[in-house]
Amino acid sequence: MRRYLKDEVSKSAPLLREIGRTVQHEGDEGTYEDVEGREDHIEYETMTAGLEITRDEMRHGSFSAVMAKFKRMAETLAEAQGKMMFTKASEAAESVGNVVAAKDKPIREALLEMQRKIQLDFDPRTGEPRHHTMVVHPETFEKIKDDLESLDGDSEFLAELSEIKQKQWMDWRDRESRRRLVD
């Protein structure tokens, strides 16, 4: 059942699959170190989802009906995890000043500013950026989709974007060259 729930959560919220996980087998506290070397305390949060099966369902229900209940439970967990992910990402971005107030900016300028603030990692074999996903609310996407499509043909925008990515690639190479290897 645990694997089924995990798979169903991933289906309900595919973005959650992109996030690495670490299982902590004991203890109720922990710390982590950010890319700047700062250590911070992990605030664990409880997340629950219920499953209720009546006596009548136990006696006369089908396996598929029970599995449908597990699926609803997984969807509830996926929704809670998604909300938590966006809340934590927002808090982290705000805490380091990594937020772009795009409301009153042309989409072109907002996208370039966002790209400048992102720390990209690259695939060492291909040189392509890794895990570069932009999440936009559906209502916001409807408002900006025509502007986004027009940027595909904007050679000045594409050249500036390419310059930014080249700088990010050089920054990534510098980070990789300073990385400590474990014996």
Task: Report on the architecture of this protein.
The protein is mainly alpha-helical. It has two domains: 2-95, no CATH class; 107-178, no CATH class. It is 54% helix and 3% strand. It is built from six helices and two strands. It has helices at residues 2-12, 55-60, 63-95, 107-117, 138-151, 155-178, and strands at residues 31-33, 39-41. A two-stranded antiparallel sheet has the order 1-2. Strand 1 and strand 2 (39-41) form a beta hairpin.
Radius of gyration: 22 Å
Secondary-structure element series: HEEHHHHH
Q: What is the spatial order of strands in the main beta sheet?
A: 1-2
What is the tally of helical segments? 6
Morphology call: extended
Described by strand count, sense and barrel closure, the largest sheet is: 2 strands, antiparallel
Distance between the termini: 38 Å
- Helical residue percent band: 40-55%
Mean pLDDT: 88
Number of strands: 2
Strand content: under 5%
Low-pLDDT stretches are none
Number of domains: 2
**Helix/strand/pairing class, anyone?**
mainly alpha
Name the features.
183 residues; mainly alpha; 2 domains; two-stranded antiparallel ribbon; 54% helix; 3% strand
